[in-house]
Design brief:
Aspartate Aminotransferase, domain 2, 7-stranded mixed β-sheet, 13 strands
Length: 371
């Protein structure tokens, strides 16, 4: 049996009658850049996030970079973040003119450790950039008091967490609801993926929203009039139309991912070399990835590949140990939980169209390896 890590063709077959007419409407209108579908998507995503403003942009990377640029970072300004995430998080901090300060993660959820964040704050700190990794929200309610006490902004990296939520003081709060600004990614492999690249920023800060809209359009709210030097980071109308057609399916897709995760967790229970994902009791994750901690990870990965079971390691080298950040002076052993996770994690297929037989085959392949 072949079980790919992701099967976008299966998704397309299920929703093509929704997506193709939306695409055709854009083609017939010939409004390919910032057409009507873009503000419609902005409104819909902002509503999902319970934010006042949605500002579409060209990629998930830009959805982090532009809020960081809006902070006006100067040389020496620091942004605290996690080393266990995709490179764009720290790369955006550097490219916005700041210095990433990496702190360790909580070993259960893989998310940033708030206690480590508090210990890392200095007079040069300007912002905290938590990542809601693998579709599970970080403990943002523990970061907010730190930010308030030190006058810092929180920028949420929700690239993997659109629609995830966390119960705080008895109330469900959405990924993107509580930060000063939040970045989402619509890369095709994401839970809500475009047919190309794309991103979205959300915020409830009116001034921030106005600034972000300018920054994505060469720094001007009016054509040919530029208040500052921005960039070209527009979401095209085709991608917006595709995303609008997909958005009504997002909740059911997320529910299906949670069902698959529960099936995996139950079936792998009792297999001592394998630790299934820890879900914080406050969280309702969307399982962008279903990530195990395992013994003999690299051997298991080769075994899965040989049996046509898709898998991936997110992420094999923590950011503080990347060559490009060597100048920051981090040494191996400085952030042990992130470093340990990088040697143990492996992610399994979790897409909504996965069948029970496919899940059973993946589980049996893993159990067969450890037998």
């Amino acid at each position: 049996m072949n079980v790919p890590l992701l099967d976008l063709v299966a998704q397309y077959r299920a929703i093509k009658d929704d997506v193709l007419p939306a695409l055709q409407a854009v083609i017939e209108s010939q409004h390919f850049v910032m057409g009507p579908s873009v503000p419609q998507l902005e409104s819909a995503v902002a509503q999902l996030a319970r934010a006042r403003h949605g500002i579409a942009c060209a990629s998930g990377t830009d959805a982090l970079l532009l809020p960081l640029k809006a902070l006006g970072l100067e040389p020496g300004d620091e942004v605290i973040t996690t080393p266990f995430t995709f490179f764009a998080t720290a790369g955006a901090i550097h490219n916005a003119g700041g210095t990433p300060v990496f702190v360790d993660i909580e070993p259960g959820t893989f998310n940033i450790d708030p206690a480590a964040v508090e210990a890392a704050v200095t007079p040069r700190t300007r912002a905290i950039l938590p990542v809601h990794l693998y579709g599970q929200m970080a403990a943002i309610e523990r970061l907010i008091p730190i930010a308030r006490a030190h006058g810092l902004k929180i920028i949420e990296d929700a690239a993997q967490a659109i629609g995830a939520r966390r119960r705080i003081d008895g109330e469900w709060r959405m990924a993107g609801e509580l930060g000063w600004a939040t970045g989402y990614s619509f890369f095709p492999s994401k839970n809500l993926g475009a047919w190309g690249d794309g991103g979205m920023m959300v915020t409830s800060d009116d001034a921030a929203a106005e600034r972000l809209r300018k920054l994505r359009l060469h720094g001007g709210a009016k054509q040919y009039h530029h208040d500052e030097i921005g960039t070209n980071s527009r979401l095209d109308s085709v991608q917006a139309a595709v995303l609008l057609a997909k958005l009504p399916h997002l909740a059911s897709w997320s529910s299906k991912r949670r069902e698959h995760a529960a099936s995996y967790t139950k079936a792998l229970d009792g297999l001592s070399p394998v630790r299934t994902p820890v879900v914080d009791r406050c969280n309702e994750p969307i399982f962008h990835q279903y990530t195990l901690r395992v013994e003999r990870r690299d051997e298991l990965q080769a075994h899965l590949k040989s049996h046509s079971v898709g898998n991936a390691v997110y992420y094999p080298v923590p950011l503080h140990l990347q060559n490009c950040f060597r100048h920051l002076g981090y040494q191996r052993g400085r952030l042990p939980e992130a470093e340990r996770a990088a040697t143990e994690v492996i992610s399994l297929p979790i897409y909504p169209e996965l069948t029970a037989d496919q899940i059973g085959f993946v589980v049996e392949t893993i159990r067969g390896f450890y037998r």
